[in-house]
């Protein structure tokens, strides 16, 4: 079941469109914001709220990179693998983070603290290499900086 | 040198709030348009200014607007959509404008909506641009409070609502018809054209989709006129352009310069030239879907027509430099991998062709490529070329590959003969 808060937030988004199904992506993002990821149950609940079939909602959910259909860690590290970050050495940063947390792209650390994912160009090319953790952007990254940044996320 | 789009942007500081923006004359264009100009007059003005779409395709903006049907009875809705889904690898200009001066965009959107007869407008903003989204939402709220949005704007009788939609990822949503599907809450897959969005776009209604940088121009052109706009440029394409440089240069960054500023000046004077120990080998001039240029093209004027003459495209105008310490094959592989992952999967050449090319480039990097693989790569640049795919995604994707095979052929062949990547 969708929570009261989720319902309320989705209703606000529905107002911006001529029909409720158009708020599908917004609804998925809202539920994910509250729960971390989108379960089958959430798909069904969103579908009945918006008058769509569960398959329609799942089709949308699986199309978009930033909708997670599997559980993720408490914090999500997104390492930019865009072309400017390649030139400026994201691969060694990835190696460093991967070793430090003992996880590879697509994996979640054993303590559930971090999920590590690649992300396409973050538009921080003049300060490459760059990454995001949750909603926060970080750039001009070095190994030392990464140690400090990761420490902020418990 | 005038820098109309960026003059009030102070990086690392908050953008101008509405009172500061009004004080600097920021909403004068809106006042002039709504109080003293007919919609057709504005379309004619923008058309004759020659302003071209700054999202990368360079389509004439006024012409795009003129395709929207004129309805005298105002029977149905029309829409304006701002494409702020900047996701082209190596592009970082719209983010700068969104974070730096959101009211400038809103002013442009009010005038554009009025000119095309739109009653509702959306800003489709990339999910990753969180800071930009917050600042844009704040600016919209301020504009409503001050009477620049909502009902009867500035007493003109014109109504406009402006909404923000934050995306959920996928590069293809920057393609205007895929963007419209995504805004309707669907999978972001491009639509058949015709009908073009100007006739049947968002929710089946006439819609104009314009890039952030394009819309930021509108208020300035309305306020200061065509002569002023044309004089800003060094060529016959008017205005200024946001140019960026990233890679191993001394001062990577973004600058607003006259349209047609030579590439050499941008890379060497503004970006400070190459860092010690790095030599320039190639330039991707306007995002990952544009062909390579080389050191022999440095005197090219960076406008749409001049870059086209070199066989490439101006695209977004944000360049990334390939240096001699970076493997050209790895460089191209990185971009192709991105395009393969971002293919929406709708049409076969793109869905199957890009992963095929990606696998072959991976085999080059592993030292497992064969001479015959060169032909397979060449074949794919034609197979996925313009006219063979549903949208421009795959033709754009193979642009750096086709020019890379031309300019860096020796490097490809060396991977085959050495049976390894010479850079690793």
What does this structure look like?
The complex is a heterodimer of chains A (154) and B (424). Chain A is α+β, with helices and mostly antiparallel strands. Chain A folds into two domains: 4-63, NADH-quinone oxidoreductase subunit E (Arc Repressor Mutant, subunit A); 75-151, Glutaredoxin (3-Layer(aba) Sandwich). Chain A is 45% helix and 12% strand. Chain A has seven helices and four strands, in the order H-H-H-H-E-H-H-E-E-E-H. A four-stranded mixed beta sheet of chain A has the order 2-1-3-4, covered by helices on one side. In chain A, strand 3 and strand 4 (136-138) form a beta hairpin. In chain A, helix 1 (4-14) runs antiparallel to helix 2 (24-35). Chain B is built from 17 helices and eight strands. In chain B, the strands form two sheets. In chain B, strands 3-2-1-4 form a four-stranded parallel beta sheet, sandwiched between helices. In chain B, strands 6-5-8-7 form a four-stranded mixed beta sheet, covered by helices on one side. Helix content of chain B is 43%, strand content 11%. In chain B, 56% of the residues are buried. Chain B has helices at residues 18-23, 28-36, 39-49, 61-66, 93-100, 102-116, 130-145, 176-183, 212-231, 263-270, 304-309, 328-342, 348-366, 372-383, 393-397, 399-407, 409-418; strands at residues 79-84, 120-125, 161-166, 207-211, 240-246, 253-258, 280-284, 318-323. Chain B is of the alpha/beta class. Chain B folds into three domains: 18-231, 3-Layer(aba) Sandwich (Rossmann fold); 240-323, Roll (Ubiquitin-like (UB roll)), CATH 3.10.20; 328-418, de novo design (two linked rop proteins) (Up-down Bundle), CATH 1.20.1440.230. Chains A and B meet through helix 2, helix 4 and helix 5 of A and strand 3, strand 5, strand 8 and helix 12 of B.
């Amino acid at each position: 079941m969708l929570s009261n808060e989720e319902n309320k937030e989705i209703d606000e988004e529905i107002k911006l469109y001529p029909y409720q199904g158009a708020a599908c992506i917004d609804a998925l993002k809202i539920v994910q914001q509250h729960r971390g990821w989108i379960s089958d149950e959430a798909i069904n609940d969103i579908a009945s709220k918006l008058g769509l079939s569960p398959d329609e909602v799942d089709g949308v959910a699986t199309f978009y990179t930033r909708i997670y259909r599997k559980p993720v860690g408490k914090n999500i590290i997104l390492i930019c693998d865009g072309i400017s970050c390649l030139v400026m050495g994201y691969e060694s940063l990835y190696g460093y983070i991967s070793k430090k947390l003992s996880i590879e792209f697509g994996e979640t650390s054993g303590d559930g603290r971090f999920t590590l994912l690649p992300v396409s160009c973050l538009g921080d090319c003049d300060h490459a290499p760059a990454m995001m953790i949750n909603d926060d952007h970080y750039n001009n990254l070095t190994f030392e900086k990464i140690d400090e940044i990761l420490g902020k996320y418990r | 040198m005038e820098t109309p789009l960026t003059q009030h942007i102070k990086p690392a500081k908050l953008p101008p709030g509405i009172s500061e923006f009004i004080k600097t004359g920021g909403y004068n264009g809106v006042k002039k348009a709504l109080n003293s100009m007919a919609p057709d007059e504005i379309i004619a003005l923008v058309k004759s200014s020659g302003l071209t779409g700054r999202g990368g395709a360079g389509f004439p903006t006024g012409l795009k607007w003129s395709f929207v049907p004129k309805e005298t009875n105002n029977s149905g809705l029309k829409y304006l959509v701002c494409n702020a889904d900047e996701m082209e690898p190596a592009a970082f200009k719209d983010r700068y404008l969104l974070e730096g001066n959101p009211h400038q965009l809103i002013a442009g959107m009010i005038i554009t909506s009025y000119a095309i007869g739109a009653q509702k407008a959306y800003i489709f903003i990339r999910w990753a641009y969180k800071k930009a989204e917050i600042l844009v939402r704040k600016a919209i709220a301020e504009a409503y409070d001050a009477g620049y949005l909502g009902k009867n704007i500035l007493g003109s009788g014109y109504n406009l609502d402006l909404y923000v939609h934050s995306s959920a990822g996928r590069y293809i949503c920057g393609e205007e018809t895929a963007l419209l599907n995504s805004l309707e809450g669907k999978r972001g897959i491009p639509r058949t054209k015709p009908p073009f969005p100007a006739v049947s776009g968002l929710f089946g209604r006439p819609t104009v989709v314009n890039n952030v940088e394009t819309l930021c121009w509108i208020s300035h052109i309305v306020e200061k006129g065509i002569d002023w706009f044309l004089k800003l440029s060094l060529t016959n394409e008017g205005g200024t352009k946001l140019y960026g440089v990233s890679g191993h240069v001394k001062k990577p960054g973004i600058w607003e310069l006259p349209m047609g500023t030579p590439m050499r000046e941008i890379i060497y004077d503004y970006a400070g030239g190459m860092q010690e120990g790095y030599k320039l080998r190639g330039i991707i001039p306007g995002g990952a879907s544009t062909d390579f240029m080389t050191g022999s093209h440095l005197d090219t004027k960076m406008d749409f027509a001049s870059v086209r003459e070199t066989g490439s495209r101006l695209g977004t105008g944000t360049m990334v430099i390939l240096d001699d310490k970076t493997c050209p094959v790895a460089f191209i592989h990185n971009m192709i991998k991105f395009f393969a992952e971002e293919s929406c999967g709708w049409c076969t050449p793109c869905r199957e062709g890009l992963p095929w090319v990606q696998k072959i480039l991976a085999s080059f990097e592993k030292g497992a490529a064969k001479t015959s693989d060169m032909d397979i790569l060449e074949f794919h640049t034609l197979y996925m070329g313009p006219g063979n795919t549903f949208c421009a995604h795959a033709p754009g994707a193979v642009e750096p590959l086709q020019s890379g095979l031309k300019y860096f052929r020796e490097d490809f062949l060396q991977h085959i003969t050495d049976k390894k990547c010479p850079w690793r």
